[in-house]
Amino acid sequence: MKKSSFKSGVHPFEGKAYSQDMKITELKPAEFMVFPMSQHIGAPAKPVVKVGDRVLKGMKIAEAASFISSPVYSSVSGMVKAIEECPMISGTPSLAITVENDFQDECLPGFGEPRNPDELSEEEIVKIISDSGIVGLGGAGFPTGVKLSPKNKDSIDYIIVNAAECEPYLTSDYRLLVERAGNILTGVSIVLRLFPNAKAVIAIEDNKPDAVKIFEEQCKGLDGISTMSLKTRYPQGGERRLIASVTGREINSHMLPADAGVVVINTATVYAVYNAVCNNIPLIKKVITITGDGVNTPCNVEAPLGVSFSYVMESCGGLKDTTVKLISGGPMMGMAMTGLDFPVIKTSSSVLAITSDDVEKMKTTACIHCGRCVGACPEKLVPQLMAAAAKAEDYERFETLNGMECIECGCCTYVCPAKRPLTQTFKLAKAAVRETKNAK
Q: Global pTM?
């Protein structure tokens, strides 16, 4: 089935042609693997190993530190060499466990052993998902076990699999859809078992017609699972826009999707659920995209968590000498990288290498009051007024203008002819508002 999309948003250059036809390849682990404790929303994980300990592949090396937290597992066997802070792409350091790989690939007993999900209770399934360290792999990093345990479980009537992958250049979820459709459907059926009154919808943008066709065929005859093709428009994969496109329901920053009777789960997260429940494999690897005109060989690789991006890039043929900028994620919501010496973590999605940085060439001018930002905003906000309030540090007015509803998608910045850094301005303003409220 197909429903109309929202009317705002933008159509940036997709850039998916670089890697969309590149099948997923498995990347071998490196000599040293670094596992940060902060790979998710919530409290950092707490190490349960010490320097000198030998660990096995699939062994828990850090436990969840609170209800909103997630454990960390080793993707290799070897020796713990250090437990110290390491730099992260965000600029905020994290305590991390460094394991020296012994290349024996010795696994924890039971690792990889198949099990029948039909023989598990709902409680056992949720516990496996939580204990396996699975978090939202679309970038949010919220612990999946918590998401799948809402207080109003009987009121949930939609499970939406976010297979839109609307961020330009990224193709890792797309490759999972076309290469591992059966496994993803098994993961969906496992999640669906937890919600007795729900139906599942796999929502895919229509710029992926082969993926839509595959799932429409495979969903035939399945009870409670269907596919929906959505019009390609950024940010179609944003949680609020996706819920509205699929169900017609609207949520805001004061609501959770569960408040609207919906649970949204990303494609890669569903695949991780399948691996954990059916194969007894915790979250120790992630499919990521290496792409852009600055990459010698664009590709999609299944990388073991803890490997460095520099190692990944070398394994993919390296960067061109003309590369001028690296971005973690896509160009709309990604983050500029100061280098590649950072570990691949649960929420890693892509490295985008570009040879021409248009942003640096742009000259920012005063707002010309054209209103393009208003027309592009998927949350129906007025960015030009919000920016004026933020610049004046009038955060009370910023809130009155519903500035906290900004989803930081970048649409306003993208269409602004004055080249104003609107999204960055709103990020800083929202942080200031939260800081003020926390202080009070």
A: 0.94
CA angle 292, 412, 258 (to 5 degrees): 90
Instruction: Kindly give the residue spans of alpha helices, DSSP state H, lying in 219-305.
Output: 239-247, 267-279
The pLDDT profile of the chain, 440 residues, written as one tens digit per residue, is: 445 467 899 999 999 999 999 999 999 999 999 999 999 999 999 999 999 999 999 999 999 999 999 999 999 999 999 999 999 998 899 999 999 999 999 999 999 999 999 999 999 999 999 999 999 998 889 999 999 999 999 999 999 999 999 999 999 999 999 999 999 999 999 999 999 999 999 999 999 999 999 999 999 988 899 999 999 999 999 999 999 999 999 999 999 999 999 999 999 999 999 999 999 999 999 999 999 999 999 999 999 999 999 999 999 999 999 999 999 999 999 999 999 999 999 999 999 999 998 666 668 999 999 999 999 999 999 999 999 999 999 999 999 999 999 999 999 999 999 999 999 999 999 999 999 888 87
Distance CA 419, CA 426 (A): 15
Kindly report the backbone phi and psi dihedral angles of residue 153, in degrees, each rounded to the nearest multiple of 5, phi listed first.
Answer: -55, -40
